[in-house]
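Q:
Got a chain?
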Amino acid sequence: MYRADHIGSLLRPKELRDAPESIEIQNKCILDVLRRQQELGFKIFTDGEFRRRSFMADFYDSVEGLDMDGSIARAWQGGTGSSRLTGIVVEKIRQKRRLAKHELEFLKQQAPGDIKMTLPTANQFPAIAYKKGLSERAYSTYSQFLWDVVPIIKAEIEALVREGARYIQIDAPRYSYYVDPKWRRYLHDEMGIEIESALDEAIRVDNACIQDAKRDGVTFGIHLCRGNHKSQWYAEGGYDPIAEKLFNELNVDTFLLEYDSERAGTLEPLRFVPAGKTVVLGLVSSKVPQLELQQDVIRRIEEASRYVPLEALALSPQCGFASSFEGNVLSEDEQWRKLNLVAETARQIWRVD
Protein backbone atom coordinates (compact mmCIF):
# COMPACT_ATOMS: atom_id res chain seq x y z
CA MET A 1 0.00 0.00 0.00
CA TYR A 2 0.91 3.62 -0.44
CA ARG A 3 0.11 4.89 3.07
CA ALA A 4 0.46 8.53 1.98
CA ASP A 5 -1.66 8.87 -1.13
CA HIS A 6 -3.06 11.74 -3.17
CA ILE A 7 -5.80 11.97 -5.73
CA GLY A 8 -3.71 13.18 -8.64
CA SER A 9 -4.49 16.73 -9.69
CA LEU A 10 -2.49 19.68 -8.37
CA LEU A 11 -2.87 23.44 -8.60
CA ARG A 12 -1.42 24.79 -11.83
CA PRO A 13 1.48 27.22 -11.30
CA LYS A 14 1.01 30.69 -12.75
CA GLU A 15 3.41 30.09 -15.62
CA LEU A 16 1.34 27.09 -16.68
CA ARG A 17 -1.94 28.98 -16.33
CA ASP A 18 -0.47 31.68 -18.56
CA ALA A 19 0.69 29.23 -21.24
CA PRO A 20 -1.37 26.04 -20.80
CA GLU A 21 -0.59 24.63 -24.25
CA SER A 22 3.20 24.99 -24.00
CA ILE A 23 4.76 21.52 -23.81
CA GLU A 24 8.01 23.04 -22.55
CA ILE A 25 6.27 24.74 -19.63
CA GLN A 26 4.15 21.65 -18.93
CA ASN A 27 7.32 19.56 -18.71
CA LYS A 28 9.06 22.06 -16.43
CA CYS A 29 6.11 22.29 -14.08
CA ILE A 30 5.68 18.52 -13.98
CA LEU A 31 9.34 18.08 -13.06
CA ASP A 32 8.86 20.59 -10.24
CA VAL A 33 5.88 18.75 -8.74
CA LEU A 34 7.56 15.36 -9.09
CA ARG A 35 10.45 16.76 -7.06
CA ARG A 36 8.08 18.18 -4.45
CA GLN A 37 6.25 14.86 -4.09
CA GLN A 38 9.57 13.09 -3.60
CA GLU A 39 10.78 15.65 -1.04
CA LEU A 40 7.62 15.13 1.01
CA GLY A 41 8.18 11.39 1.03
CA PHE A 42 5.45 10.16 -1.32
CA LYS A 43 6.08 6.80 -2.96
CA ILE A 44 3.50 7.24 -5.71
CA PHE A 45 3.79 10.00 -8.31
CA THR A 46 1.50 11.86 -10.71
CA ASP A 47 2.05 14.73 -13.12
CA GLY A 48 -0.63 16.80 -11.38
CA GLU A 49 -2.82 16.32 -14.48
CA PHE A 50 -0.96 19.36 -15.84
CA ARG A 51 -1.55 18.38 -19.47
CA ARG A 52 -5.35 18.32 -19.00
CA ARG A 53 -8.02 21.02 -18.84
CA SER A 54 -9.88 18.87 -16.33
CA PHE A 55 -9.69 15.39 -14.86
CA MET A 56 -11.76 14.06 -17.77
CA ALA A 57 -10.38 16.17 -20.62
CA ASP A 58 -8.32 13.34 -22.10
CA PHE A 59 -11.53 11.56 -23.03
CA TYR A 60 -12.99 14.64 -24.70
CA ASP A 61 -9.78 15.15 -26.66
CA SER A 62 -9.79 11.53 -27.80
CA VAL A 63 -13.27 11.14 -29.27
CA GLU A 64 -15.54 12.66 -31.86
CA GLY A 65 -19.32 12.87 -31.67
CA LEU A 66 -19.67 15.35 -28.78
CA ASP A 67 -20.93 18.93 -28.99
CA MET A 68 -18.29 21.01 -27.20
CA ASP A 69 -19.89 24.48 -27.39
CA GLY A 70 -20.79 24.65 -23.68
CA SER A 71 -24.38 25.63 -24.20
CA ILE A 72 -25.92 24.22 -21.01
CA ALA A 73 -25.47 26.00 -17.67
CA ARG A 74 -24.61 24.04 -14.54
CA ALA A 75 -25.10 24.98 -10.88
CA TRP A 76 -22.63 24.26 -8.05
CA GLN A 77 -22.89 24.55 -4.27
CA GLY A 78 -20.52 26.16 -1.81
CA GLY A 79 -19.45 29.14 -3.88
CA THR A 80 -20.45 31.79 -6.39
CA GLY A 81 -18.89 30.23 -9.46
CA SER A 82 -20.74 28.69 -12.36
CA SER A 83 -19.83 26.63 -15.37
CA ARG A 84 -21.35 25.41 -18.60
CA LEU A 85 -21.67 21.80 -19.65
CA THR A 86 -19.70 20.79 -22.69
CA GLY A 87 -19.50 17.50 -24.47
CA ILE A 88 -23.14 16.65 -25.13
CA VAL A 89 -23.31 13.51 -27.28
CA VAL A 90 -25.01 14.21 -30.61
CA GLU A 91 -23.42 11.54 -32.81
CA LYS A 92 -22.07 8.04 -32.31
CA ILE A 93 -18.72 8.46 -30.59
CA ARG A 94 -15.56 7.55 -32.47
CA GLN A 95 -12.12 7.32 -30.90
CA LYS A 96 -9.43 9.23 -32.75
CA ARG A 97 -6.44 8.78 -30.41
CA ARG A 98 -5.28 7.34 -27.09
CA LEU A 99 -6.17 9.17 -23.88
CA ALA A 100 -3.08 9.26 -21.65
CA LYS A 101 -0.23 7.61 -23.53
CA HIS A 102 1.63 10.92 -23.88
CA GLU A 103 1.35 11.58 -20.14
CA LEU A 104 2.74 8.19 -19.12
CA GLU A 105 5.63 8.36 -21.59
CA PHE A 106 7.04 11.46 -19.87
CA LEU A 107 6.43 10.08 -16.38
CA LYS A 108 8.25 6.85 -17.21
CA GLN A 109 11.32 8.90 -18.03
CA GLN A 110 11.12 11.29 -15.08
CA ALA A 111 9.14 9.91 -12.12
CA PRO A 112 11.36 8.93 -9.15
CA GLY A 113 9.07 6.04 -8.18
CA ASP A 114 5.85 4.23 -8.97
CA ILE A 115 3.43 6.04 -11.28
CA LYS A 116 -0.26 6.61 -10.66
CA MET A 117 -2.41 7.25 -13.72
CA THR A 118 -5.89 8.70 -13.26
CA LEU A 119 -8.78 8.13 -15.64
CA PRO A 120 -12.46 9.07 -15.44
CA THR A 121 -14.97 6.28 -15.06
CA ALA A 122 -16.97 5.41 -18.15
CA ASN A 123 -20.02 6.21 -15.99
CA GLN A 124 -18.96 9.86 -15.92
CA PHE A 125 -19.96 10.66 -19.45
CA PRO A 126 -23.55 9.53 -19.93
CA ALA A 127 -24.34 11.20 -16.59
CA ILE A 128 -23.41 14.60 -17.96
CA ALA A 129 -23.34 14.13 -21.75
CA TYR A 130 -26.63 12.40 -22.46
CA LYS A 131 -29.38 15.02 -22.75
CA LYS A 132 -32.92 14.18 -23.72
CA GLY A 133 -33.98 16.03 -26.83
CA LEU A 134 -30.39 16.16 -28.11
CA SER A 135 -28.73 12.80 -27.67
CA GLU A 136 -31.43 10.43 -28.95
CA ARG A 137 -30.28 11.09 -32.50
CA ALA A 138 -27.09 9.17 -31.61
CA TYR A 139 -28.22 6.75 -28.91
CA SER A 140 -31.79 5.82 -28.16
CA THR A 141 -30.98 5.23 -24.47
CA TYR A 142 -28.56 6.38 -21.80
CA SER A 143 -27.39 2.78 -21.37
CA GLN A 144 -26.59 2.40 -25.06
CA PHE A 145 -24.24 5.38 -24.88
CA LEU A 146 -22.68 4.14 -21.65
CA TRP A 147 -21.66 0.80 -23.12
CA ASP A 148 -20.18 2.54 -26.15
CA VAL A 149 -17.81 4.40 -23.81
CA VAL A 150 -16.66 1.22 -22.05
CA PRO A 151 -14.32 -0.13 -24.79
CA ILE A 152 -12.45 3.20 -24.89
CA ILE A 153 -11.76 3.34 -21.14
CA LYS A 154 -11.11 -0.41 -20.95
CA ALA A 155 -8.52 -0.32 -23.74
CA GLU A 156 -6.77 2.67 -22.19
CA ILE A 157 -6.49 0.98 -18.79
CA GLU A 158 -5.07 -2.17 -20.33
CA ALA A 159 -2.54 -0.16 -22.34
CA LEU A 160 -1.39 1.91 -19.35
CA VAL A 161 -0.80 -1.21 -17.30
CA ARG A 162 1.19 -2.83 -20.13
CA GLU A 163 3.25 0.34 -20.44
CA GLY A 164 4.26 0.46 -16.78
CA ALA A 165 1.69 2.29 -14.66
CA ARG A 166 1.70 0.75 -11.17
CA TYR A 167 -1.49 2.37 -9.89
CA ILE A 168 -4.66 3.00 -11.89
CA GLN A 169 -7.16 5.32 -10.20
CA ILE A 170 -10.67 5.52 -11.63
CA ASP A 171 -12.29 8.85 -10.77
CA ALA A 172 -15.97 8.17 -10.19
CA PRO A 173 -17.88 11.12 -8.73
CA ARG A 174 -21.09 9.93 -10.38
CA TYR A 175 -21.73 7.37 -7.64
CA SER A 176 -22.64 10.39 -5.52
CA TYR A 177 -25.87 10.58 -7.55
CA TYR A 178 -26.97 7.50 -5.61
CA VAL A 179 -26.26 8.95 -2.15
CA ASP A 180 -27.80 12.43 -2.50
CA PRO A 181 -31.63 12.47 -2.30
CA LYS A 182 -31.99 15.33 -4.78
CA TRP A 183 -29.90 13.53 -7.39
CA ARG A 184 -31.74 10.26 -6.80
CA ARG A 185 -34.96 12.17 -7.56
CA TYR A 186 -33.36 13.67 -10.67
CA LEU A 187 -32.33 10.26 -11.98
CA HIS A 188 -35.76 8.82 -11.36
CA ASP A 189 -38.04 11.72 -12.25
CA GLU A 190 -36.09 13.55 -14.97
CA MET A 191 -34.16 10.74 -16.62
CA GLY A 192 -36.60 7.91 -15.97
CA ILE A 193 -33.87 5.73 -14.44
CA GLU A 194 -34.59 3.02 -11.87
CA ILE A 195 -32.04 3.71 -9.14
CA GLU A 196 -30.96 0.23 -8.05
CA SER A 197 -30.73 -1.16 -11.56
CA ALA A 198 -28.69 1.89 -12.62
CA LEU A 199 -26.31 1.36 -9.69
CA ASP A 200 -25.93 -2.29 -10.63
CA GLU A 201 -25.14 -1.28 -14.20
CA ALA A 202 -22.59 1.31 -13.06
CA ILE A 203 -20.75 -1.34 -11.07
CA ARG A 204 -20.81 -3.75 -14.02
CA VAL A 205 -19.37 -1.00 -16.22
CA ASP A 206 -16.43 -0.22 -13.94
CA ASN A 207 -15.71 -3.91 -13.44
CA ALA A 208 -15.79 -4.47 -17.20
CA CYS A 209 -13.24 -1.69 -17.70
CA ILE A 210 -10.64 -3.18 -15.35
CA GLN A 211 -11.26 -6.93 -15.37
CA ASP A 212 -8.75 -7.83 -18.10
CA ALA A 213 -6.03 -5.48 -16.83
CA LYS A 214 -5.72 -6.77 -13.27
CA ARG A 215 -2.39 -8.35 -12.40
CA ASP A 216 0.01 -8.71 -9.51
CA GLY A 217 1.96 -5.58 -8.66
CA VAL A 218 -0.63 -3.13 -9.98
CA THR A 219 -3.08 -1.34 -7.69
CA PHE A 220 -6.58 -0.55 -8.93
CA GLY A 221 -8.42 2.11 -6.98
CA ILE A 222 -11.66 3.98 -7.36
CA HIS A 223 -12.08 7.53 -6.08
CA LEU A 224 -15.58 8.42 -4.87
CA CYS A 225 -16.33 12.08 -4.19
CA ARG A 226 -19.18 14.56 -4.41
CA GLY A 227 -17.91 17.00 -7.01
CA ASN A 228 -14.92 19.30 -7.05
CA HIS A 229 -14.79 22.57 -8.99
CA LYS A 230 -13.31 25.83 -7.65
CA SER A 231 -13.85 24.51 -4.07
CA GLN A 232 -17.51 23.78 -4.83
CA TRP A 233 -19.46 20.54 -4.91
CA TYR A 234 -22.74 19.27 -6.32
CA ALA A 235 -23.73 16.37 -4.03
CA GLU A 236 -24.04 15.64 -0.33
CA GLY A 237 -24.75 12.57 1.76
CA GLY A 238 -23.07 9.59 3.35
CA TYR A 239 -22.09 6.39 1.56
CA ASP A 240 -24.78 4.47 3.45
CA PRO A 241 -27.21 3.84 0.53
CA ILE A 242 -24.52 2.25 -1.65
CA ALA A 243 -21.80 1.01 0.72
CA GLU A 244 -22.67 -2.67 1.08
CA LYS A 245 -23.19 -3.23 -2.62
CA LEU A 246 -20.35 -1.01 -3.81
CA PHE A 247 -17.65 -2.20 -1.43
CA ASN A 248 -18.44 -5.85 -2.04
CA GLU A 249 -19.11 -5.86 -5.78
CA LEU A 250 -16.64 -3.36 -7.25
CA ASN A 251 -13.59 -5.39 -8.25
CA VAL A 252 -10.96 -2.85 -7.16
CA ASP A 253 -8.17 -3.13 -4.59
CA THR A 254 -8.77 0.14 -2.82
CA PHE A 255 -11.47 2.75 -2.27
CA LEU A 256 -10.41 6.39 -2.06
CA LEU A 257 -13.17 7.99 -0.03
CA GLU A 258 -14.08 11.60 0.67
CA TYR A 259 -14.31 12.21 4.43
CA ASP A 260 -13.27 15.83 4.93
CA SER A 261 -16.58 17.29 6.13
CA GLU A 262 -20.04 16.50 7.43
CA ARG A 263 -21.13 16.52 3.78
CA ALA A 264 -19.66 13.00 3.51
CA GLY A 265 -21.60 11.44 6.37
CA THR A 266 -20.23 9.10 9.03
CA LEU A 267 -17.52 6.45 8.96
CA GLU A 268 -20.03 3.70 9.76
CA PRO A 269 -20.46 2.52 6.13
CA LEU A 270 -16.84 1.32 6.32
CA ARG A 271 -18.16 -1.72 8.19
CA PHE A 272 -19.13 -3.13 4.80
CA VAL A 273 -15.56 -3.09 3.41
CA PRO A 274 -14.60 -6.76 2.97
CA ALA A 275 -11.33 -8.33 4.02
CA GLY A 276 -8.68 -7.95 1.36
CA LYS A 277 -9.80 -4.47 0.28
CA THR A 278 -8.14 -1.27 1.48
CA VAL A 279 -9.46 2.23 2.14
CA VAL A 280 -7.72 5.56 1.57
CA LEU A 281 -9.30 8.05 3.96
CA GLY A 282 -9.71 11.50 2.39
CA LEU A 283 -9.52 13.40 5.67
CA VAL A 284 -7.57 16.47 4.50
CA SER A 285 -9.64 18.95 2.52
CA SER A 286 -8.45 20.09 -0.88
CA LYS A 287 -11.24 22.68 -0.95
CA VAL A 288 -10.29 25.05 1.89
CA PRO A 289 -6.98 26.72 2.79
CA GLN A 290 -7.16 26.04 6.53
CA LEU A 291 -4.69 23.34 7.56
CA GLU A 292 -6.21 20.51 9.55
CA LEU A 293 -4.81 19.69 12.98
CA GLN A 294 -2.78 16.52 12.92
CA GLN A 295 -4.34 15.25 16.13
CA ASP A 296 -7.79 15.56 14.55
CA VAL A 297 -6.69 13.58 11.50
CA ILE A 298 -5.16 10.89 13.72
CA ARG A 299 -8.33 10.69 15.78
CA ARG A 300 -10.41 10.12 12.65
CA ILE A 301 -8.03 7.41 11.46
CA GLU A 302 -8.41 5.71 14.83
CA GLU A 303 -12.21 5.96 14.50
CA ALA A 304 -12.05 4.39 11.05
CA SER A 305 -9.94 1.54 12.41
CA ARG A 306 -12.98 0.38 14.39
CA TYR A 307 -14.47 -0.69 11.07
CA VAL A 308 -11.41 -1.43 8.90
CA PRO A 309 -8.12 -2.73 10.35
CA LEU A 310 -5.41 -0.07 10.59
CA GLU A 311 -3.18 -2.08 8.26
CA ALA A 312 -5.87 -1.79 5.56
CA LEU A 313 -6.08 2.02 5.81
CA ALA A 314 -4.16 4.89 4.20
CA LEU A 315 -4.49 8.68 4.11
CA SER A 316 -4.97 11.31 1.39
CA PRO A 317 -6.68 14.61 0.64
CA GLN A 318 -10.38 14.10 -0.01
CA CYS A 319 -10.07 15.04 -3.70
CA GLY A 320 -7.67 16.59 -6.16
CA PHE A 321 -6.63 20.19 -5.74
CA ALA A 322 -7.52 21.03 -9.33
CA SER A 323 -10.07 18.68 -10.87
CA SER A 324 -10.59 21.52 -13.34
CA PHE A 325 -7.85 23.75 -14.72
CA GLU A 326 -8.86 26.72 -12.53
CA GLY A 327 -8.18 24.80 -9.34
CA ASN A 328 -9.61 25.14 -5.87
CA VAL A 329 -9.54 28.29 -3.77
CA LEU A 330 -6.24 27.95 -1.92
CA SER A 331 -2.62 28.72 -2.68
CA GLU A 332 0.11 26.38 -3.85
CA ASP A 333 1.87 26.79 -0.48
CA GLU A 334 -1.33 25.79 1.31
CA GLN A 335 -1.66 22.80 -1.01
CA TRP A 336 1.87 21.60 -0.22
CA ARG A 337 1.35 22.08 3.51
CA LYS A 338 -1.68 19.82 3.30
CA LEU A 339 0.24 17.20 1.35
CA ASN A 340 3.04 17.42 3.89
CA LEU A 341 0.46 16.80 6.62
CA VAL A 342 -0.66 13.67 4.78
CA ALA A 343 2.90 12.38 4.45
CA GLU A 344 3.92 13.24 8.04
CA THR A 345 0.80 11.68 9.50
CA ALA A 346 1.29 8.51 7.46
CA ARG A 347 4.84 8.22 8.80
CA GLN A 348 3.62 8.65 12.36
CA ILE A 349 0.70 6.22 12.11
CA TRP A 350 2.19 3.45 9.97
CA ARG A 351 5.92 4.00 10.64
CA VAL A 352 6.69 4.14 6.93
CA ASP A 353 9.93 5.70 5.63
